[in-house]
Amino acid sequence: MKHMNSEVKEERTSNKKRIDLFLVPIVLIAAFLNLFKIWTDEYANAYYTAAVKSMLQSFHNFFYASFDPGGYVTIDKPPVVFWIQTISAKIFGFHGWSVILPQALAGIGSVLLLYVLVKRTFGVWAGRLAALAMALTPIVPAVSRTNNIDSMLVFTLLVATWMLFRAVRTAKFGWVLAAFAMIGVAFNMKMLQAYMVLPAFYVFYVVATKITWKKKIAFLTTATALMLAVSVSWAVVVDSTSADKRPYMGSSQTNSVLELAFGYNGINRLTGNTSVTGSSHKQPSQTQQQTASSETKQTSNSSSDSSQSSNQRKSSSSQKMQAPGGGNQNGMFNTGNPGPFRLFQKGLSDQISWLLPFVIFSIVGLFAGVKFKGPYTTKQKESLFWLAWLLPVAVFFSIAGFFHQYYLIMLAPPIAAFAGAGAVALWSMYKQRNGWKSWLLPGGILTTAALQVYIMSPYVSSIGVAPIAGVGALGVILALVLAVRKERKNSLTNYLGAAVLVVLLAMPAYWAMTPIIYGGNSMLPAAGPDSSSGMGGPPSTATNSKQSGFNGMQPPGSSSGNSSSNNQMQPPSGSSNGGQLQMPGGSSNNGQMQPPSGSSNSGQMQMPNSTLSKASSSKRKSGGMNAEVNKKLLNYLTKNNTGEKYLFATTDSTSAAPYIIETGKPVMAMGGFSGSDPILTVSKLKAMIKKGEVKYFYLSGMGKGGQSDVIKWIKENSKEIPSSKWQSTSLSSQQGPSGNGTLYEITLK
Hints:
By secondary structure, the chain is mainly α. Helix content is 49%, strand content 3%.
């Protein structure tokens, strides 16, 4: 106990010391990577930004995280992060940057927290290097520059880690409760993903605390119960509320938060099964079905521009769509194929794995000589914590059926911690000429440089040969110099250490800057020279890699020019329809994407809500290819509104979001995010129309999901509004994946 008290006193004394001057530039780097130019993203992820706009309008919308101001349907995630974003928008005004700001600050905060966590046990240089590695992990700033949840989730879990470490140092049960309660808060950010760290928390507390087994079990049981209570608190309140008193729970099939948590946002991520129309479909190797995932639908809605004529469309070479990264070997959404080496495959390795070989060598060094029965040093105990965080999460991403690249931010803290702690440990073993352990440093440098060359090699057309050759050559040279001079006392040691640091972190630093250099994607954030595509794989051969969309394809509102076969997209391997890609709601025709029936533009597919002009060059509406507003349509709907609650109704959230953002008026996404939620029935819709709640319906022919009966009834009982009244004549140059939409009006007596 005296030892514990001395540690607390030491901590208080260290806190009074002046700021670590070496930490200042690291924090400034993190601030630059996370904050610079976020003000250019006008919509951010439009699906979530629309929810913030709605949540600003009433406490009812705020509490339930309603997607639309009318309180019709919620977004597909719990509300805590969006509560924070709404508060930020309330303070600073509603802007794209104000909803991104909390995540950017969380990214910076994670760098600081990792410094604090690692420094205390492994030393100040270990803390500095861990913080630097966290700041320069490419996927960290890529995610933190958006209004997606994951940056805030990681920050919250690191806060919980700090509480757990303090609980062990002080032997106070209150800190254990606080740590597990914080995981419960994280659950209300992204549900089961927060529980990925639980193995680390349980293992560390059992190994690190010097109390009886009886107390360990009692304390952990109580803390777990509190965590579960906090986790389901919001869900229980929502699910206990009468369905007619709250919005429908978006992306669930039973209007239940718990079903959303443990199904759609839980087990289905591992298995790859996503619910589309009430049934499950195997997802990992197919893209025929429309996924119910918000991120997936956003990807499909940010697909290519195609301005070919009908004759060109018949050419298979110009219509097959090639997956970003130049091939189907990269798996769905460029997340590779399941297997033990998945994190080293293209599309994932350049987001998170730059330092993984060095981390593996560091783990060997940190655990060298450890006996299973102990006793364990504090360094070994905390190393075990980071290992118990790293391994289960790495295993999940190695076998999971469905996830997106930016989820990999969950691996950043343990990788950065091992990079910092391991660098100091391996350096010490090398300088002390500690037998076989002294070879770990040159071995780690050599293998890490080799992996980085492998990661960069597909990008040679974007970054050139020089950086690839430079990292490879310098890595080999430094490893050889360290090996040759291992037995000598020399004055060049510190200079060699600095050189190693530069060589191994130079390209991760460049990759971390790519969302700033090339533009980011707030729907599916990923780092790399094609970061604006949101698919983070090897670059396309498109002429302008800075353009939004897939591999430089033209965004809506721009002149599409001539299409190239290089902008094609093919389905992942294993597709059951002969290698053809079938878009949701469409049919396959020799691999070609078909427009909705009744399209009048010679087979071309038009955006349902394209803007009449380009977005300002100083503002980037990256909330999706559909994240623009047709001003003529908006003017028509506004002028002809006769007191209806909803400005109009549409099939899914992608068409609705930009209008909610621009006007703050209710727009009904009849089938929720993807258009597949079983929210609306014909009888319910009739009642809404009779009550004067809605009379205009915009149908694009996509995203029908389980709404076919409703859509069929709308078409049979409505009056079609001539496109000349609401559609711009310039829309002939506006192509996109959502089809040529039609506006209908229904008035029932």
